[in-house]
Design goal:
There is one protein chain. The chain is built from nine helices and ten strands. With 246 residues, the protein is of the alpha/beta class. A six-stranded mixed β-sheet has the order 6-7-8-3-9-10, with helices on both faces. Strand 4 and strand 5 form a beta hairpin. Helix 3 packs across helix 4 and helix 5 runs parallel beside helix 6. The radius of gyration is 18 Å and the shape is globular. 41% of the residues are buried.
């Protein structure tokens, strides 16, 4: 059997002020799985996300990506294999043109020439933005900028995509366009979100975190049908949404 795409064991982390953000996380994600990471503000979701490619270092526990343990010697390789897409595109878009932004990551990992250009072209095609290659991201809509940020990560051909609140502040058309883009990708995905219908649209599995621990883990329709559990952890489906109606 192949190794899990993501394996986390006993992961613990506390911020400098003493706040325990992760209280011992165990998690396996199989290749190709799409997992929604749900929970109230302060639950530890983003902290967990930042451990998956070494932005934060654990106080205790281990992280493995495709069977490779995260360590100082493997950090560069892990960062190529785990792509983080942040909520704010400004964290990832800083070059004069979209094509330059998309080329930045793979060039940093050593690609040059035709191979680099192919990576850029493929990433732009994956997010349906080929015709905007020479435009400044500063002049794009919010939805275009979100897909542009995704393209900068896809150009590195990650095995695991981790997205932080991908639908936040998007209008309905931009939400749909991004969902269609994500649905068409083959990568293993972890999607951190408060948007429960969006999670249901994109994912088959849901994990609920609260207080730095996992409090629920299962098929997304089953998790979202547990109204009492959701309420206990300050989660709520919008009025009129029917679980399983995707």
């Amino acid at each position: 059997m192949s190794s899990p795409a993501v394996r986390v064991r006993g992961l613990r982390y506390a911020y400098p002020d003493g706040h325990v953000a992760l209280g011992g996380i165990d998690l396996d994600v199989v290749p190709g799985e799409r997992v929604a990471l749900l929970g109230p503000n302060g639950a530890g979701k983003t902290t967990l996300m930042l451990h998956l490619n070494g932005v934060l270092g654990a106080a205790a526990g281990t992280v493995e990506i495709g069977g490779t343990a995260l360590s100082r010697t493997t950090l560069r390789d892990i960062r190529r294999r785990v792509g983080l897409v942040f909520q704010d595109p400004d964290d990832q878009l800083f070059m004069p043109t979209l094509a330059q932004d998309v080329a930045f990551g793979p060039a940093n990992f050593g690609l040059r020439g035709d191979e680099l250009q192919a990576r850029v072209a493929n990433a732009l095609a994956a997010v349906s933005m080929t015709e905007l290659a020479d435009r400044s991201p500063a002049h794009m809509s919010g939805g275009q900028r979100r897909r542009a940020a995704l393209a900068t990560v896809l150009a590195c051909e990650p095995e695991v995509l981790v997205l932080d609140e991908p639908s936040a502040n998007l209008d309905p058309v931009a939400r749909r366009e991004l969902a269609e883009t994500l649905t068409g990708l083959d990568a293993t995905m972890l999607i951190v979100t408060h948007d429960l219908p969006y999670a249901a649209q994109l994912c088959d599995r849901a994990i609920v975190m609260d207080g730095g621990v996992i409090v629920a883990d299962g098929a997304i329709d089953e998790v979202l049908s547990d109204v009492e559990m959701l309420a206990t952890h300050r989660l709520e489906l919008p009025w009129g949404f029917v679980v399983g109606s995707r």
